[in-house]
Amino acid sequence: MEVPELLQVVVLAAMALGGSWATLPDHHTLPDHHTLPDHRLSSEAGAIFVHELERELFQEAFVNGHEGDDATPITFQAHLQDHPDLPRWLRYVQRDPLQPGYLYGCPTASELGTHGIEVLAYNRHTYETVAQLLLLTIIPAPDGEPPYQGEFLVGNRNVEEMLPEEVQEMFLQATAGVWDQDDLRVINITSALDRGGRVPLPIEGRKEGVYVKVGSHGAFSPCLASATSPQSRLRCSLGQQPLADCYDSFAPPFSIQWCNLTLPPTEATPRDLLPGFLVTLLVPLLVALLLCLLLGYLMCCRREGVQKRNLETSDLQLFHHTTIRGDTEELRHMAGSRDVPRPLSTLPMFNVRTGQRLSPLPAAREGARDGARAPLLPP
């Protein structure tokens, strides 16, 4: 193919590609952003807080949205104002872009005050965004935190299915059948996945499970107490149902896993750590002191001494010992003071510089010869 024909093919391909790009929507343009008025909310400390992010409210704020169009996919993002994430006690869940989102959690007494939660809704078709600021005020509970709390595991529900108010009321009515109290209230709702549960298989009817904590100022019923007794725990470990006769009040809407029922105490008595600290610190010190005293007694008070040893030893043995010791000292003194001549093998016998052979002994130089002290080599 010649060069002009190749250039013509490239130009035609570029024109065709440019025309196809022109027919696509421009996703690089900045989508429209709108803001809804601030919404004020309140919740008591120690009680469940649930806020539904209604799709209809945000859908009406989209410019390109159509009223009554329920098929518009909308996703939400929520975070604490001027922070990248939500507070530790607050969670967000949305199962599907065509379903509403929920903010839920149980605020504690340390969260008292007003908190700003920023919510941003995305239109997944047009990429428009709508923002809203939620002003959440946490107030103290008038009656305080319930001293009796029971936590139930609902095995046939997902967490977003337990958040609507009518579902919570139905669960409290079922709980009243096993815990006959008038002041029952939901304290917290937690997904089983947040407690280390496994993601269920994508099979119809399989749910992730939800932990629902219910509180009251009245004592636990005998049914709940028997369900958490040691005999019931033993039966649960063997794969059997616990000892209780009040299972049918929850069925069929809620499938309660009775072996996972817990009755946690909320008002734990303050522990005095000083006795434990003193025992941990003083007992090893006391043992070490006793060992030191015992060792000192054995080393100092149990020594025989020279006088006691001499009294218990015979005179003949002491005389021998004294004689041997005296002789040893005398020999050591004589060995240190005697003057012994150097060995002949270490004395010089040949002058390297002059080449003269000399006797190493002064007497040999004067003419006196001693056979015992004669050098090995003749002069």
Topology:
Elements: H1 3-22, E1 33-35, E2 39-44, E3 49-53, H2 55-59, E4 74-80, E5 90-93, E6 101-105, E7 113-123, E8 129-139, E9 148-154, H3 159-162, H4 165-176, E10 185-191, E11 210-216, H5 222-227, H6 230-237, H7 274-301, H8 306-311, H9 315-337, H10 362-365
Parallel strand pairs: 1-8, 2-8
Antiparallel strand pairs: 3-6, 4-7, 5-6, 7-8, 9-11, 10-11
Description of the molecule:
- The protein has helices at about 5-20, 55-60, 160, 165-175, 220-225, 230-235, 275-300, 305-310, 315-335, 360-365, and strands spanning about 35, 40-45, 50-55, 75-80, 90-95, 100-105, 115-125, 130-140, 150-155, 185-190, 210-215.
- It is of the alpha+beta class and about 375 residues long.
- The strands form three sheets. Strands 1, 2, 4, 7 and 8 form a five-stranded mixed beta sheet that branches. Strands 3-6-5 form a three-stranded antiparallel beta sheet. Strands 9-11-10 form a three-stranded antiparallel beta sheet, covered by helices on one side.
- It is elongated, with a radius of gyration of 49 Å.
- Residues about 20-30 and about 370-375 have low confidence and may be disordered.
